Amino acid sequence: MSRQPYLRLTFKGQRPGQRPTASQLVEAIRDQVQGGSSLEGCRLPPVRVLAHQLGVAKGTIESVYDELKAQGVVESRDRQGLFVAPRNPEVEVPELTRVPPLALKRLSSCQPTVTARPGMLHLSAVFIDPRILPRDRLAACFRSVLKSPGMPGLYDTQGYRPLREWIAERLRGRGIDARADHVVITNGSQQALDIVMRMAATGTVATESPAYFIGKYLMELSGMQAVGLPVDPFQGLDLERWEALLRRHRPGLVYLTTNFQNPSGYSYSTRELSHICRWSREHGFGILEDDWGSDMLSYSEFRPSLRALGGENVLYMNSFTKKLLPSLRIGYLLGSEATISALVMGKRVATLGVPAVMEAGLYEFLDRGYYDTFLRTVQEELDRRYRRCLDLLDRLMPEPVRWTTPGGGPILWLELPRSVSIPRLAARLAAEQVLIEGSEDAFFDEPHLHGFRIGYAFLDPDEMEQALARLSEGIRALL
Amino acid sequence: MSRQPYLRLTFKGQRPGQRPTASQLVEAIRDQVQGGSSLEGCRLPPVRVLAHQLGVAKGTIESVYDELKAQGVVESRDRQGLFVAPRNPEVEVPELTRVPPLALKRLSSCQPTVTARPGMLHLSAVFIDPRILPRDRLAACFRSVLKSPGMPGLYDTQGYRPLREWIAERLRGRGIDARADHVVITNGSQQALDIVMRMAATGTVATESPAYFIGKYLMELSGMQAVGLPVDPFQGLDLERWEALLRRHRPGLVYLTTNFQNPSGYSYSTRELSHICRWSREHGFGILEDDWGSDMLSYSEFRPSLRALGGENVLYMNSFTKKLLPSLRIGYLLGSEATISALVMGKRVATLGVPAVMEAGLYEFLDRGYYDTFLRTVQEELDRRYRRCLDLLDRLMPEPVRWTTPGGGPILWLELPRSVSIPRLAARLAAEQVLIEGSEDAFFDEPHLHGFRIGYAFLDPDEMEQALARLSEGIRALL
Q1: pLDDT at position B14
Q2: Which of A86, B98, B231, B354 lies at a C-alpha separation of 20 to 30 Å from B190?
Q3: pLDDT in tens, A373-430
């Protein structure tokens, strides 16, 4: 255990160029330590510390302490230093004041805790299998940056400029009129979402139901009213229903994940996206588009985004984290000349900036052309895993079970008969080392789906076969 | 320029195990592209893409496209692919719908933009001079981690456990009963502040006036009513005034920077801290203590903090960023058994996690014992710069100018006569390559101080002499 902390003493009204006299110091210390009973028993600063603080000789402080001892204000204890003397030595030194807790917000709903134990097969993961991610190449790029030019000292609040240039160029290749000046680098796409929620001057936001559940919590914690727009990954959008909801609730912001919406796995058709742009103009809401999934599907870079269709007022976000490595935590947000300063302010009040070496190391990886090489490899692998997953589902699932066929990418939706209890199924599977994530809390109203997502990007084909075989047995047992 | 984006098509109601027939596909595509005029002129997916999406042979898609061409639904353009045919060929393809902008919040006040041009002497910086920070040792530690064990794949939402253990042990050495389970690693201390503001179930927060201005913006953007508690770094706290303000406004949370409050440079005395604990109990507010400055002052690790005095309900935050390197962006928040899950949730909705390699690299630096070695060196250097700064102020400042003597550390407060206009002084100095940051916007009411902070940690003694000489001339010219 270390030495006991000592008092901080302040000496007021000191004039520059004047050092306090010993008698002024005696008076100032006596006033401070006798002013409140709670300081009894506290340790005084060592002589060298107080001399340093005041810029006076140690001899001055020694004489001050001698005088305070003589007056009975302080007392010395062997080898422990000088302490404030109790005024009444028979009273024990009082407990220091314990302060009350800060009242904290609570969430009205809470995702059932899914704890992945080591060795479990995670059948609902949205991540790509870390074993096929470019960890070594990333590490080599970071080491290279750290060797030369070395660890960056400062950071750019908006984000490392070469990285913003790279992103803007890539987006222009996808039909988006992007400029580096309008890109903000974020701590993953989660921060991009947080910045827009924080800066939006609206009390009502709409998003898909089932929703990305951490986004749903964010809306709730931000005190926003959230409207759920139902997505059925088998049927697409019910356009009349959506328009009625938008007209009735008049959200100021609509947040949509246009590729592989989590958890439904749905990707919007261009016709649906053009309806959304039209509604935006008719009903006056702003749009935030989350495009996390596009790079995970072969050829998807040539499909138009809401941003490409709707123009520069559509806020667009994406991330490198899901594709390259979860621990990178680097995403971005694309605004416009009119919105960029507010978006940068939203980042500034939240985190000031992203660690600069993360931006420089990632840029090195991108600049060497490793990203496209990697995407080609990983998309082929995900296509293989997708086809294998479909074959297994065809072979293993009992009759009433249905699933979507998104054509590749990371996730699909598996729909069960209502008679199968998903919490009971999850518990049974957990006992067999298979993890599924129920989505009950992801809906805003009564769930119109009864299932969960299957992440074929995360498990290799053998693991997938084991997991789906146990799932199939579980469903049959509960049917 | 890249190829034109193509339509996303969806195919509904597909049953597992059944591939759609060519005639079903013709019908589905015709329905989608003729449903809205805005799709006229859009490109269709290439044959290989659609075949891949649907899991059918390319020949099937080719015959579907031939049929659609024959029906006049689509038309082919040389070497560009297949496009949706306009229904009336004389009408031009319409512009895609431009969506309206999202309404964004605006700040009621805005810090005057201080733009540090290259070569400027920044006299008001709160940072330590990057030239004396351990950039090379940090880079070596990060390179070592990247070599072995390598780039971490996943991350711990609460923060890298060995780093949390190190922090908890260090805090225990300062009289704080800390456990690794109650520490959250944050993206700088800014995120620690944001988490608490986000999770606090209160509409009213109090903080020092003058305030840390980004914190003030954060409160405003969070829709909180902010109460200013006046700090006079020459006189300390006016205890009666504080108690009256706390009684009248009844904040749910009080946020205080107990060492080198920014911008006043004030450090609280133990007596003042014990009053704050008592008021917390009497008036029922929670406390967030920001201790960023303690490590920058020699011996200050032995002075008790609010957390040490007030117990586990005091939320405590600190950072490595200011001491080691601004671009690290690693800080932490210490809660308790009762609060930790809400604090972790507050981080989760904001950024999910901190880049794991940043935590591992910093831990390597700490674990090797470099932090204490570095602190000894840097504190000696800051003490030297502090004394040099005081000598220069004594020698150069005209009579009515006053300044505080905090005993070392990073910053002091310089107070000018009211007759000197600080904006005019700042403009004059900017023309002479010296930067000062006025603090007018940092007050909540009429400013009771008229000055700015001087950061002696940032400039070396020669630069400080040049900057203070120009400051002195500027003040004399405006007196």
Answers
A1: 54
A2: B231
A3: 999 999 999 999 999 999 999 999 998 999 998 888 999 999 999 999 999 999 999 9
For strands B253-257 and B204-209, give the pairing.
parallel
Report the C-alpha gap between B272 and B259 in whole angstroms. 12
Q: Is the pLDDT of residue B170 over 90?
A: yes
Name the DSSP class of A83: E
* CA of B98 vs chain A CAs: smallest distance (Å): 5
Residue A414 tokens read as 């598996």
φ and ψ at A104, to 5 degrees? -115, 155
Q: How far apart are the first and last CA of chain B?
A: 61
Asked if B38's CB is within 8 angstroms of A142's CB, the reply is no
What element of type H or E holds B205?
strand B204-209
Distance CA A222, CA A332 (A): 21
CB contact under 8 A, A405 and B15: no
Q: Judge: B96–A17 Cβ closer than 8 Å, yes or no.
A: no
How many C-beta neighbours within 10 Å does residue B439 have? Answer: 23
Instruction: Say yes or no: B189 contacts chain A, CB-CB below 8 A.
Output: no
| A215 vs B349: CA distance, rounded Å | 7
In chain B, residues 24-83 whose CB comes closer than 8 Å to chain A: 32-33, 35-36, 38-39, 42, 45-46, 48-49, 52-55
Give every residue of chain A whose pLDDT is below 70, as ranges.
1-3, 12-18, 35-38, 87-96, 108-115, 301-302
Question: From CA A471, how far away is CA B214, in angstroms rounded?
Answer: 51
Tell me the per-residue pLDDT of B285-325, one tens digit each, with 9 for 90 and over.
999 999 998 888 887 766 789 998 899 999 999 999 989 99
C-alpha A237/C-alpha A206 separation (Å) is 14
DSSP for B333-369, written as a single string: EE--TTTHHHHHHHHHHHHS---HHHHHHHHHHHHTT
Among B392, B121, B404, B448, smallest CA distance to B267 is for B404
SS3 A254: strand
Q: For chain A, how many helices (H) and strands (E)?
A: 16, 15
A324-383 residues touching B, CB cutoff 8 A: 325-330, 336, 338-339, 342, 345-346, 348-358, 383
Instruction: Write the CA distances from A56 to A24, A303, B300, integer angstroms.
Output: 13, 73, 18
Distances (CA, A) of A304 to A31, A259, A299, B156: 73, 11, 11, 35
CB contact under 8 A, A143 and B143: yes
